[in-house]
Design a protein that fits this description.
Oligomer: single chain
Strand content: 25-35%
Structural class: alpha+beta
CATH superfamily of the largest domain: Alkaline Phosphatase, subunit A
Strand order of the largest sheet: 2-12-9-1-8-4-5-6-7
Number of strands: 40
Number of helices: 11
Number of domains: 3
Radius of gyration: 30 Å
Length: 741
């Protein structure tokens, strides 16, 4: 659910959170306390006594406080950087574009920081501070950059405990290995000083306080070393179990894991957490009573469950986090519509805390405001951009995940809380079929665009060992081009009756062919028929078998790759002039037969690839070497505009939807199979924002996009050719309901 309320309205709305406070109350201070890689089940009187006494319960420090400890709090992407960008923005990874810690889809450089919880609170008159860990890839030692919205900036690296740099308002400071340099002590001094200064000046403040513990190497303060040496490592039924013989099994990356023994890390994590807890007790001593405090972790952690030691995976121990909401003076409480066991997420913090403080949201969010939105029934699970790619859905009672290789996992969380028996078998057990159908539909709806490498919709439209490309579909037929197993360099055009499955070849015996699209509203398709490498364009009525040449197009030269609309035919023509072969892109007016040239290029240097044709626009690509430029041609203006693919990227296979005013295309880095995404932008603003529909797996390129009537009524599906960079063999894939993304 996305929410956007114009600033002028938000500024005048009294948040439901404020109902228990008097009209004269000053705006509340807001403190976000975040640990790093902490499991939800380590909040206890033993391991975190300050948090337990003063945030989970009403302690002596703030006897009027009111708290909620959420028992079903989660993160959709269980990794540091994507989770933290979600907290800062209130947006899922598929909205921020930050799926991982590094690479083109992760890390500090991938994050757009122009609109965050910091910028909103700052613009509302709050004094703001970030103390602690920011994002992976931010290097305090070598950068002077301070993101917008922060008045006080003291940022450190991931995993810093001793011998580290901090960026203090953009200036590097080095801390060594003295006891006074221990990271949690230093961070707490900075956080305490900020709170005291803001309080003395009478300024409301936002404090984002991000500890580095208990992230690996989880070095405890010297006084805490050995404190929990006698605490045994938990060993639930899933401990070091990499498969389940009663179900469909675990994915290969789990089955390939060695036996784990995280005993030493378990102890260090508990002991470094204890130092965090001590620091929170010290901070609480200086906080004003009109403060809202949220405590959470950026993700969970597995101690050998499913033979996994870490995070990243979609299992319960990885995605479940501690989350506590506390109003120190009791003025703000969880509204009655929400219960502590409702599904709460990290993306909820920005909309919830801004509403509680009366701060206007400057952008849309994916998260929910607990004061005004009803609880959710499910949320997306998503990760990609590194060694693991998946998308799924979590409900309170069920979890479903699909990986980039198509492997699926389905668990009944009530009957199987340790996720031991994968129900995504073939066939699905009778009792799980309803849940499987519901969760797969929810995944297709929530996970848009899909993470890098994950195709949500059926891949097998057309596949197999043959090279298949150039697919087009109407309500009744599918056409495509495919080579011969016996003669892989020769191609024919085919059509399949979608009702009966009957397949026919479009081009005549003794010829070769390439497929084309359909005349709108008919079962007549255009295709290329080639004899001795010379091509002509034909129409074929797939119902009657009637075939005829496209009038006024074919010549002694060679015509190829026809695309047809109600009024026009777009095609290319090869002709030898002065001993040099040229390719011309032509547009025929079907009413009067007149031809318009869109350009001429030397065939040896440029491959001209017609894309689509409508009533007002055409699209095409120019392939030069390994790169491609794509264009939209305005028929009325007789002008072509290049589609912007982004710096260093190429655009491939464009197709136009004039109904909703969009152009769809594939963008890649220029190296085959690297950073390939399918995108959409508006025809009326080709330099405007682009929507990413999906990101393909590494090593896979995409060409030949075409739109087809959707499986869902009144929506459009997108067909495209996906081909590996080494094999070169293409398959026809599809994305469903792309106009809804």
């Amino acid at each position: 659910m996305k929410r956007f309320v114009p600033v002028v309205l938000l500024a005048t709305v009294l948040s439901p959170w404020a109902r228990t406070a008097s009209a004269e109350s000053p705006p509340p201070n807001v403190v976000i306390l975040m640990s790093d890689d902490q499991r939800w089940d380590t909040i206890s009187p033993t391991f975190t006594p300050e948090i337990w006494d003063n945030l989970v319960n009403t302690g002596s420090t703030f006897p009027g406080s009111r708290s909620t400890m959420f028992t079903n709090a989660f993160v959709p992407n269980s990794l540091c950087c994507p989770s933290r960008t979600s907290i800062l923005t209130g947006r899922y990874s598929h909205t921020t574009g930050v799926y991982s810690n590094t690479g083109p889809f992760g890390g500090f450089k991938a994050f757009d920081d122009k609109h965050t919880i910091a910028t909103d609170f700052h613009d509302a008159g709050y004094r703001t501070a970030l103390i602690g860990k920011y994002l992976n890839g931010y290097v305090p030692r070598s950068t002077s950059y301070v993101p917008p919205g922060w008045d006080r900036w003291f940022a450190v690296n991931t995993g810093a405990f001793y011998d580290y740099y901090a960026s203090s308002n953009g200036h590097p400071l080095f801390y060594g290995d003295d006891p006074a340099d221990y990271i949690t002590r230093v961070l707490n001094q900075q956080a305490t000083a900020f709170v005291e200064d803001a309080t003395d000046d009478g300024d409301p403040f936002l404090l984002y306080y991000a500890f580095t513990a208990p992230h690996e190497p989880a070095v405890p303060q010297q006084r805490d070393v050995g404190r929990f040496a006698s605490v045994p490592l938990p060993q639930p039924p899933s401990y070091n179990v990499a498969d389940d013989p009663t179900g469909a099994g675990k994915p290969a990356y789990i089955r390939d894991q060695p036996v784990q023994d995280p005993t030493a890390l378990h102890e260090r994590q508990l002991e470094s957490e204890y130092g965090v807890d001590r620091a929170i007790g010290q901070l609480l001593a200086v906080l004003p009573s009109n403060t809202i405090v949220v405590y959470l972790s950026d993700n969970g952690w597995l101690w050998g469950e499913h033979r996994w030691a870490g995070k990243l995976v979609p299992y319960n121990e990885s995605i479940r986090i501690p989350m506590i909401l506390t109003s120190l003076d009791g003025s703000f409480t969880l509204p009655g519509a929400w219960a502590p066991d409702d599904l709460t997420l990290n993306v909820d913090l920005r909309p919830t805390l801004e509403a509680a403080a009366g701060v206007p949201l400057s952008t849309s969010v994916d998260g929910l405001d607990w004061a005004s939105d009803p609880p959710r029934g499910a949320f997306v699970l998503e990760h990609g951009g590194d060694t693991l790619s998946y998308c799924g859905v979590r409900e309170a009672g069920w979890m479903y995940t699909r990986y980039s290789d198509g492997f699926e996992e389905l668990y009944n969380e009530n009957a199987d809380p340790y996720e031991m028996s994968n129900l995504a078998s073939d066939p699905i057990p009778v009792g799980a079929q309803t849940a499987y159908d519901r969760l797969t539909a929810e995944m297709s709806s929530l996970c848009r665009p899909a993470p890098p490498g994950v195709l949500l919709d059926p891949k097998g439209v057309l596949g197999g060992p043959a090279d298949q490309s150039s697919a087009f579909r109407n309500d009744d037929w599918l056409t495509w081009t495919m080579n011969s197993g016996a003669h892989p360099k020769t191609y024919d055009a085919f059509a399949k009756d979608l009702a009966t499955g009957q397949k026919i070849r479009l081009n005549k015996d003794g010829t070769h062919g390439r497929s084309g699209n359909f005349i709108p509203g008919t079962d007549r398709t255009i295709y290329t028929q080639t004899v001795n490498w010379s091509g002509d364009l034909y129409y074929l009525n797939l119902r009657t078998g009637s075939r005829k040449q496209v009038p006024g197009v074919n010549t002694k030269a060679s015509e190829h790759d026809g695309r047809v609309s109600a009024s026009y035919v777009l095609f290319d023509r090869d002709r030898v002039i002065g001993g040099i072969r040229y390719t011309r892109l032509l547009l025929q007016d079907r009413a009067d037969g007149s031809l318009t040239s869109l350009g001429r290029w030397k065939t040896a240097k440029v491959s001209v690839v017609p894309g689509s044709i409508g009533e007002g626009f055409a699209s095409y690509s120019l392939v030069e070497g390994s790169g491609s430029r794509s264009f939209v041609y305005d028929i009325a203006d007789s002008s072509a505009t290049q589609i912007p693919a982004g710096a260093g990227n190429d655009a491939w296979g464009p197709t136009i939807d004039e109904t909703d005013g969009s152009v769809y295309f594939a963008s890649s880095s220029g190296v085959c199979g690297v950073n390939v995404s399918l995108r959409r932008l508006g025809l009326d603003d080709l330099d405007g924002p682009q929507t990413t529909l999906t990101i393909l797996a590494p090593g896979v390129g995409a060409t030949g996009l075409s739109l087809a009537p959707g499986a869902a009524p009144d929506h459009m599906d997108l067909l495209f050719t996906a081909a590996g960079c080494t094999s070169g063999s293409g398959d026809i894939n599809q994305l469903l309901a792309v106009d809804t993304v």
